User: Which sequence fits this backbone?
């Protein structure tokens, strides 16, 4: 397959995630859309790594996926803490978490 198909799929994943972050107000859905954006960027890095024939892009993608997994853990911890304190689960109404 040509690299263009991978890049089109990567751009599609990134744009769906970006639209979801802008439109949705539920923090869990926003986290999922951020994951889509990171997956789109990782797919683009993997495709360029395959094009050039080196493994540097694959190592960088592994680091991006580790950061994405830790972001999900922290984000879901915040959502559970908000749910326990009866804070509304709306991104616009998250005033209780300000320092």
Assistant:
């Amino acid at each position: 397959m040509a690299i263009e198909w991978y890049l089109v799929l990567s751009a599609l994943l990134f744009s769906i995630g970006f639209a979801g972050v802008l439109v949705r107000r539920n923090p869990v859905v926003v986290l999922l859309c951020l994951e889509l954006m990171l997956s789109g960027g990782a797919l683009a890095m993997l495709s360029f790594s395959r094009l050039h024939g080196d493994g540097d892009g694959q190592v960088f993608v592994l680091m991006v996926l580790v950061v994405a997994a830790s972001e999900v853990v922290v984000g879901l911890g915040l959502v559970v803490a908000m749910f326990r304190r009866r804070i509304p689960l709306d991104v616009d109404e998250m005033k209780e978490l300000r320092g």
Notes: The mean pLDDT is 87. Residues 58 and 99 are 38 Å apart (CA to CA). The chain has three helices and no strands.
